[in-house]
Amino acid sequence: MEVYYYDIEKQNTSSDYINCNSAEELCSRVDVLSIHLPYNAHTHFIINKDVLKLMKSSIIIVNTARGGVVNENDLLEYLRNSKISGYATDVLYGEPNIKNHPLIDYATQHDNLIVTPHIAGNTFESIEKTENFIANKLYDLIMK
Questions:
Q1: According to the model, what pLDDT value does residue 110 have?
Q2: Disulfide engineering: 63 pairs with which of 35, 43, 54, 109, CB 3.0-4.6 Å?
Q3: Which residues of 97-126 are buried (b: 16+ CB within 10 A; e: fewer)?
């Protein structure tokens, strides 16, 4: 497998990966796009119809970043018309208010969209670390 990436900060990385000069170049070359971006003014709806039209129709997009980085209306149009193969996400724009969310409604009737809960940090180990961290902070506060 060839792994492509694009980083706006132009960080040095392993020569095992192929650097793209732009997000557009990356999106036009990959078969699977895994999105890892913070959500801010620059990344709001960064994946939109202008970027989606550059992608292969066989692409699968995985968004575990933030809901607002993908324009979900544009995405739904591409999913409905089979212009992209699939989308998987654990984030939705407008969370936590997702009642009647269009992606969830679509996912209940179609198999090219998967929506799962955003619980990456919800493991026994992370909960234990959090509890220990809080207990130590409380102890330090009381003992001072």
A1: 97
A2: 35
A3: eeeebebeebbeeeebbebeebeeeeeeee
